Amino acid sequence: MKKYYLLTIFAYLFAITIIAQPVITYSGNAPQIGDNYYVSAVPYGGSFDPGSAGGNQNWDFSDVQPVISATSAVVDATTTPFTSDFPEANIAYVNIPATGTYSYHQLTTSEMFYVGVVMDSDINHFPDSKKEMQFPFSYNDVYTDTYFYIFPSELMLIHERGTITVTADAWGSVKTPAGSYNSTLRLKEEEIYTDSVWNTGGTLMSVTTHSLTNYNWYTADSHYPVLSIEVTDEGASSMAYATQTGGIEDNPLLSQITIWPNPVDDMIEVKLSDAVTDKMEIEIVSTTGQPLIPLKKSGNHQFSADISRLTPGVYLLRLKGSSGISATSKFIVKR
Length: 335
Known about the structure:
Layout: H1 2-19, H2 26-29, E1 36-46, E2 54-60, E3 68-76, E4 91-96, E5 102-107, E6 111-119, E7 122-134, E8 142-153, E9 156-176, E10 179-199, E11 204-218, E12 227-232, E13 237-242, E14 257-260, E15 267-272, E16 280-285, E17 291-294, E18 296-299, E19 302-306, E20 313-321, E21 326-333
Parallel strand pairs: 2-9
Antiparallel strand pairs: 1-3, 1-13, 3-4, 4-5, 5-6, 6-7, 8-9, 9-10, 10-11, 11-12, 12-13, 14-15, 15-19, 16-17, 16-20, 18-19, 20-21
């Protein structure tokens, strides 16, 4: 009897171990068009220890005091002003509120690449893109990639060539000021890169080599890291953590909302469940956060709006209550 009892315990412990080691997957972790990312951060100047590698780790950063916060959105790259400059990109990141910066990426079911960026109207299409994610990716998995960027800097051009090695080097629980995550996988990204600085006449001015290490913690269903720590070769470090744990569809308020039809042609209807007692303001916004059309109350817990003037594409329905509770849901205009 004791022998079988012990075997049962071992089987139970083994099952816990499997659960505690999440796998990075396309369905669970790839960014999705319509996602909003809410992040708080401590820029360089701090001293953050990412902790040890290995299994069953416990990381506690719950006492970190954030300095800045930011919001970005994932949009369809073809809806951005510079889509023709990045034909291979199918998603882009934009800041909210919009600042004119666009980060372009190519996402497939097996991997994601960083292909270029636009800043202050400077278009930088990378000759050799950087692999950012691989699906699936589990504990002890490794991949290596090379990349080549060109950045204009005043009257100079910076050529950056680098190699990145990504290892899923640890798993366990992590605490941030935003919450606790009992099952996370940590990805360690080690970069070695060389910057060659050229003047406009084509003369090489300087060559420097640096290293950079990033640590990113993911849950099985977070579309972006719940925690990130970056450490330079000089020992300076920064930290960022998610203040919401997933894409825009993870807000519990969304389970109380019905949108129809979706896709929509000319008139959108929204109904809130009777459980929503807060007075809500509802409006349609662009994927960059620009207000477009307010919804008017059309019945008990019902709202509607004529959207016939909107061009086909992806839009967001933003709800805000008087108590501060808010949520954003995605819908599609299609004709």
